[in-house]
Amino acid sequence: MHKCLKCGKEFEKITEKMLKGCPECGGNLFLYIRKGKEASATDLVDQLKVEDTVPLEVDKIESLKILSPGIYELNLDALLERKEIIMKMKENGSYVIHLPSLFKKKK
Amino acid sequence: MKSKRRWKSILTLLRRALSFRKGTAKIGIYGPPNAGKTTLTNRIIHTFVDENEDVGTATEVPHETRRAVRRAGVTIDLKAKSLENPNSDLNSESEVKPKRGKAKLKLDVVDTPGLATKIDFHEFMAYGLEEDEAKRRAKEATEGVIEAIKWLDDIDGIVLLMDSTEDPYTQTNIVIIGNMEARGIPIIIAANKVDLVDASPQRIANAFPQHSVIPISALKGENMLDLYEEMARRFR
Predict the structure, then answer these.
(1) Helix (H) or strand (E) holding B141
(2) Scanning every residue of chain A, which has its alpha carbon at the shortest distance from the alpha carbon of B138?
(3) Optimal mutation site among B136, B145, B152, B173, interface A, most CBs of chain A within 10 A
(4) Which residue of B1, B120, B149 is in closest CB contact with A79?
(5) Nearest chain B Cα to A71, which residue?
(6) B133 assigned to some structural domain
(7) What are phi and psi of B158, to 5 degrees?
(8) For B122-133, how does the pLDDT look when each residue is reduced to its tens digit (9 = 90+)?
(9) Is B125 within a domain?
(10) What is the pTM of this model?
(11) Other C-beta atoms within 10 Å of B149: how many?
């Protein structure tokens, strides 16, 4: 079942006319409703199941990315937070750790 | 990470409480490229050290300063300066009413390379540089940003310079301010280039209401006294 969100008219099937808008009011937003009952927002929320924990986006570890010779992207957050400088070479996944920056003695 | 930051901040505050007043404060001039850092540093040196001494060359090409330059032993002595030139507003070329200050501060000034999140050699080619030269400059500028950030470990206070004609809500400004707040390093924001018609220092003040924002023109010398007084007050 398809319901026009503007006038509320319900349609069993999508017809060619509906591709240009609701035949009743011209509205172009439709909600698909499963057969049986009209879905309400509350029902939809209740139906949601959190089965898997969403993986957290891993912090970007590189402080410097070399996109191509002469084009550099700096991660100021990483540079400010980390002692060591980690460089990412292009997008091929290879990293270089600048060891002198890691072993530098604190003044 | 947060507790580490907090400890760092407490340690910095303690270190400053114990040693700040007896010695010379190391003050870094930070900001995005072309904000006027070298012009401001030169202005400070010209006013309080030697009017013929420059720490660097200020140009319109971004990343002109690619190494941090430290000028040690600068004494901002507003009382002496106002006695020396009672009718001047500290080198101001503007028609500002002369003021007299009394503040005094001994400092080392560090002019730093402009902080940026992306450096692209094409930017330099737009200023007429050859490709090889532009790439070399991009590499040096990148090293410069890293150097400027590493200098922060050794700095007692920063003057964060922003261009009043530009949008202050940049990643660079927000990251630097957030990090300095976490480290407990005092910041003064100088809203530079107020001599330009499209300057809006108020936009900077609205963006960072928790910090002192001093509108200045480092090039024309406008409102410098307010900046020096604020420096003496915050960094002493």
Answers:
(1) helix B131-151
(2) A70
(3) B145
(4) B149
(5) B120
(6) no
(7) -130, 145
(8) 988 988 889 999
(9) no
(10) 0.70
(11) 23
**How would you label B14-24 residue by residue, b for 16+ Cβ within 10 Å and e otherwise?**
eebeeebeeee
Inter-chain CB proximity A76 and B175 less than 8 Å = yes
Q: pLDDT, tens digit, for every residue of B70-105?
A: 888 888 887 776 655 555 555 555 444 445 556 678
User: Where in the sequence is the domain holding B51, given as residue range(s)?
Assistant: 2-118+144-235
Q: Are A66 and A89 in contact (CB under 8 A)?
A: yes
Task: Answer yes or no: is B131 within a domain.
Answer: no
Structure tokens of B9? 């901040």
What ipTM does the predicted assembly reach? Answer: 0.71
Counting the structural domains of chain B, the total is 1
Which residue of chain A is at minimal alpha-carbon distance from B116?
Answer: A74
The domain that holds B228 is classified in CATH as: 3.40.50.300
For B117-165, the pLDDT digits (tens) are 999 999 889 888 899 999 998 989 998 998 899 888 889 999 999 999 9
Residues in A whose CB is inside 8 Å of some CB of B read 63-64, 69-77, 79-81, 85, 106-107
Q: What angle do CA B102, B103, B107 make, to 5 degrees?
A: 145
Q: Is B129 part of any domain? A: no
